């Protein structure tokens, strides 16, 4: 199995996991876990599909910064609300 | 953005450390602007939810999370197909590249069909853009994203047609990378949108 | 000047500057009427002076854009203009229509003008900036069609460059969006929608394309930086302008009866609107810094950079100041709007027209650049006008903030009435009038710079070859 296929399957598994968590369970830890899963998935896409792992750092930082910035903001609001 | 002038005016990007930015630089600036637009939308969503938590919780009950899940899987798969297209052309496989690109376009079609059936059900239930702040954000953000999927499909079709005419090769395939980068951006945005709109609450 | 037909730009530029002078005269009248309410009343009432001030602005900018196009398109397409004769005919048609309209505004009451021009047959009059009689609007459409036909054919038959294509897109958009001026629904909110589709989609949409392409042309010519680099910047700037600008129209739908969700849409997308202007500023400064040669026309470069910087300040920063819905709730239609309007129009559109005039006019008068003395005066005038306009903007901003504090922010019982507020702001308005005087001095210096005798004749073979290389 090549690298892209492994990452693709991993992404599918993580997606289903986050859905099951969100709709099957409850708990204070849940929203942050779902957001963390989204961050992992996003970073996998950024590094391996967008290939920014091997791009000039500026671009990787910008796009990853966007991902973590948005999800981090959601996390802040989750813990505040 | 502050470093952009150097990047835009010199070819310093590649030779310096053998680092490779897939696709045209202009596309990457376009992607960053798109991300900024979606980022502001998501931030506004967070603020609006903070202002009306009950309305957002009630609204979230009514939307179809299953459709959101299905579409996440479809977009991730489409992104995988297009990543394979890039790998294929790098190895000189023009025909394989074209096939993977068409597979990517097909994933976009599936995505759009699911999305429209989702809209159809919700509108049938009596919800629309003006049913309150939650529904505005739900409809607008997902529709704005759908428009980007459509633009991504147009780009992929254009790249596939050019590829079939033999315009890309193992040595020169910048166009394929450019289209692929845009398509992955659309996927990335959805990966953030999915938990925010469909899973949380 | 490489192609003979580029010379048709000259009358357009000259007439644009004549109208510019008229605009400033009426600006001074208005500034005085702000503090001395019955100044020149009843000969020139405030509403008429305001209408003339804004209409002259739009018409002189249109003349400037057309002149710029007639100059730029043949050079970019590498062929003569399709029909210089048509360009001349349209010039006289447009100039006559514009002059008659302004005379109409001044000579008869507006209602009478509407009656004379048969407004009842197809009512389009009475909307801010689009006050022109219906017959003038039809004239504008005819001129625009002829203009687009003429330039469009030139572009189609010649070399297609990104600068040309972006400019044409902007011009076609300008003409198409003007058509919304002919639809005048009686429902007020609906009416505002269509009105903004002209006004906003012009200045925050297609005009930005025109601005970016003229700026790119001037920079290509004066810096000698590679076309490929400049074209890449253009793409990025345009993508940003369109993404932010189109849905950004929503920031005009706040509190006018449009659905509530526009508060979110308008805020989010117009918050992005400073981006293209920021990029344009980086672009201009960067290109000049990386220039491959020192073009003898330093004045043109000064205008180009000045334009990019002032556009960012006026359109970007001052626009953002009051674009978010919670802020706009208090500032809607206040003096802050006027502050933004002044700096944005001057920085983005007046200065780009002066930049292309500064570059093209010496060439059309048979020299690569004006002599050092004339350029010195022109550069000084650029600074004077820019500082004058910045001061106008700052004083109006002060007035706007003060106005909000007195009139909008306090609870109902404590808020000051409209006219009482206006009186309380008199100090700001006097200062603004003085800044307007400074601006006028700059304008006079600018006009004088065209008549500085060119003793040391500039056009050497060498210099000609240098511009030709671009």
Record the SSE blueprint:
The complex is a heterotrimer of chains A (81), B (201) and C (470).
Chain A: H1 3-24, H2 30-49, H3 57-80
Helix pairs in contact in A: 1-2, 2-3
Chain B: H1 4-9, H2 25-51, H3 53-62, H4 65-90, H5 94-124, H6 133-164, H7 174-199
Helix pairs in contact in B: 2-3, 2-6, 2-7, 4-5, 4-7, 5-6, 6-7
Chain C: H1 9-35, H2 46-77, H3 84-107, H4 110-116, H5 134-157, H6 162-178, H7 188-223, H8 227-248, H9 261-271, H10 274-289, H11 298-321, H12 325-331, H13 335-364, H14 372-408, H15 418-424, H16 426-449, H17 461-469
Helix pairs in contact in C: 1-2, 1-16, 2-3, 2-5, 2-13, 3-5, 5-6, 6-7, 7-8, 7-10, 7-11, 7-13, 8-9, 8-10, 10-11, 11-13, 11-14, 13-14, 14-16
Write a brief caption for the model.
Chain B is an all-alpha fold. Helices cover 79% and strands 0% of the residues of chain B. The radius of gyration of chain B is 19 Å and the shape is elongated.
Fold and architecture overview:
The complex is a heterotrimer of chains A (81), B (201) and C (470). Chain A is 81% helix and 0% strand. Chain A is mostly helical and 81 residues long. Chain A has one domain. In chain A, helix 1 runs antiparallel to helix 2 and helix 2 (30-49) runs antiparallel to helix 3 (57-80). Chain A is flat. Chain B has a domain at 62-199: Cytochrome c oxidase, subunit III, four-helix bundle (Four Helix Bundle (Hemerythrin (Met), subunit A)). Chain B is built from 7 helices and no strands. Chain C has 2 domains: 1-160; 189-470, Cytochrome c oxidase-like, subunit I domain (Cytochrome C Oxidase, Chain A). Chain C contains 17 helices and no strands. Chain C has helices spanning 9-35, 46-77, 84-107, 110-116, 134-157, 162-178, 188-223, 227-248, 261-271, 274-289, 298-321, 325-331, 335-364, 372-408, 418-424, 426-449, 461-469. In chain C, helix 7 (188-223) packs parallel to helix 10 and helix 11 runs parallel beside helix 14 (372-408). Classes of the chains: A mainly alpha (81), B mainly alpha (201), C mainly alpha (470). Chains in contact: A-B, B-C. The interface between B and C is medium-sized, with 23 and 29 residues.
Instruction: Please count the helical segments of chain B.
Output: 7
Q: Percentage of helical residues of chain C?
A: over 70%
Major sheet summary line of chain B: none
Q: From the 3D structure, determine the CATH topology of the largest domain in chain C.
A: Cytochrome C Oxidase, Chain A
Radius of gyration of chain C: 22 Å
Taken from the alpha-carbon principal axes, the silhouette of chain B is elongated
Shape of chain C: globular
Question: What do we call the CATH homologous superfamily of the domain at 62-199 in chain B?
Answer: Cytochrome c oxidase, subunit III, four-helix bundle
CATH-level-4 superfamily name of the largest domain in chain C: Cytochrome c oxidase-like, subunit I domain
Q: Say how many strands of chain B there are.
A: 0
Largest interface: A-B, 45 and 50 residues
Low-confidence stretches of chain B at least 5 residues in length (pLDDT < 50)?
1-17
Helix/strand order of chain C, N-terminal first: HHHHHHHHHHHHHHHHH
Main sheet of chain C?
none
Q: Are there runs of chain C of 5+ residues with pLDDT below 50, and where?
A: none
Q: Count up the domains of chain C.
A: 2
